[in-house]
Specification:
The chain has 383 residues and is of the alpha/beta class. 37% of the residues lie in helices and 16% in strands. It is built from twelve helices and 14 strands. Strands 2-1-3-9-12 form a five-stranded parallel β-sheet. It has a three-stranded mixed β-sheet with strand order 8-10-11, with no helix packed on it. Strand 6 and strand 7 form a beta hairpin. Helix 6 crosses helix 9 and helix 9 packs across helix 11. The longest helix has 29 residues.
Length: 383
């Protein structure tokens, strides 16, 4: 009996173990399914060829100046997404450069460093902030540039794409039954799963990472059963039916999924506030109000920013979306009682193009001018 058991182990189990181990090593090295989690630049996220890189990056791999800190420097971290990375900005004309110039003071140097890349939400922003402090760098002020149209769904889903079932995987938190943050299984730059074969199994079983991840999310909004014929309709290819969409912040009344997303983002911000405090830094979140005369003039081609209520149609189904009021009610739900400021975009010609609503250098300079004034008014930077 014992001999038969030994034969079974050597002839059956061991070959299986070695085959699985070999497969795990092969997939980790070759990464054929592209399950590397997270990114540090726009080019990594969108799969631009390996030759395409920024020449101007810091020690963590994010676009910006070298992290060189003297003892008497006042250090500001600018944390965010594509607005902070600013592909449309020239080197040394990034948001960090504008902010550093506006904060210049005779009593000592101010250094501003960027931690952010396209597609980042509060989840990856928290992780990169952890990495910064773990590397032994210090900060006096941490400022998070909130992009409300992205940040809820970016934090909810484990891939970056507005189409359900597709997108670059990333480390993502979720909330436990007690609304406490549950950590991602792996970090930025790692394989999405601790075991590569586990990732392949999840994709095979569920069909996609998004479908696997939905087990952590409450139900999304339901389509409108009896639409009002007087309300305009906008078509979208985004997965509004799963709320994996820029439209999600305007969807009212809030679905269980949207309410969960708001709680998740608030929990991530609370973790960032605690992390900054532990490391002796003050903390601020800010957003830019584009519902202004100059803002709306530039965003006229974006139905997202229409001031009126509308229906959004996807796969023949209609979903209710609010206008200006919905944006600010969602902002209040997320940012209420947090250290938060809203700046008005009051400068014409502030976007990259008619099809790219990101701020250009002109727009970024105005945003950073207002941020600098806020930091001075709060007494955090002396002039």
């Amino acid at each position: 009996m014992k001999r038969a058991a030994r034969h079974f182990v050597f002839l059956v189990l061991l070959p299986i173990v070695f085959a699985l181990l070999g497969a795990e090593i092969y997939f980790r090295l070759k990464d054929p399914a592209k399950l590397r989690s997270g990114w540090t630049t726009n080019y990594e996220l969108f799969g631009v060829g390996k030759w395409k890189k920024f020449a101007y990056v810091n020690a963590l791999g994010y676009r910006g100046q070298s992290i060189d800190i003297a003892n008497d420097d006042l250090v500001v971290l600018l944390v965010g997404d594509s607005q902070v990375e600013c592909v449309a900005c020239a080197d040394r004309r990034l948001p960090e450069d504008f902010l550093q110039n506006f904060l210049a003071r005779p009593s000592g140097r101010v250094k501003v460093f960027s931690l952010g890349a396209a597609g980042f939400g509060p989840d990856q922003e928290l992780l990169v902030l952890r990495s910064y402090f773990k590397m032994g760098f210090r900060a006096d002020i941490v400022v998070v540039w909130q992009t409300l149209t992205n940040d809820i769904w970016n934090a909810q889903f484990a891939t970056h794409s507005i189409v359900f079932g597709t997108g670059h995987p990333k480390p993502t938190f979720h909330l436990g039954a007690d609304d406490k943050l549950i950590e991602p299984e792996t970090g930025i730059g790692d394989i999405f799963c601790p075991l590569y074969l586990a990732c392949l199994m999840r994709q095979w079983r569920y069909g996609s990472i998004d479908a696997y991840w939905e087990q952590y999310l409450p139900p999304p909004a339901l389509p409108v059963a009896a639409p009002d014929v007087e309300i305009p309709v906008v078509d979208t290819e985004e997965s509004i039916d799963r709320e994996k969409s820029h439209w999600s912040i305007w969807m009212e009344p809030a679905s269980p999924r949207k309410a969960y997303g708001i709680k998740l983002v608030r929990a991530l911000y609370a973790a960032m506030i605690d992390l900054a405090s532990i490391n002796g830094a003050k903390f601020l979140i800010f957003d830019v109000n584009r519902y202004t005369k100059d803002g709306l003039a530039e965003m006229y081609g974006y139905p997202l920013f229409s001031e009126i209520a509308k229906y959004v149609r996807h796969d023949g189904k209609l979903y209710a979306a609010s206008g200006r009021e919905g944006y600010f009610s969602t902002s209040k739900a997320i940012n209420g009682e947090l250290p938060f400021s809203m700046f008005d975009m009051d400068r014409p010609g502030h976007v990259v193009s008619e099809t790219d609503g990101h701020f250009n250098e002109h727009g970024n300079e105005r945003v950073m001018e207002q941020l600098a004034a806020e930091l001075v008014n709060r007494g955090w930077v002396s002039k």
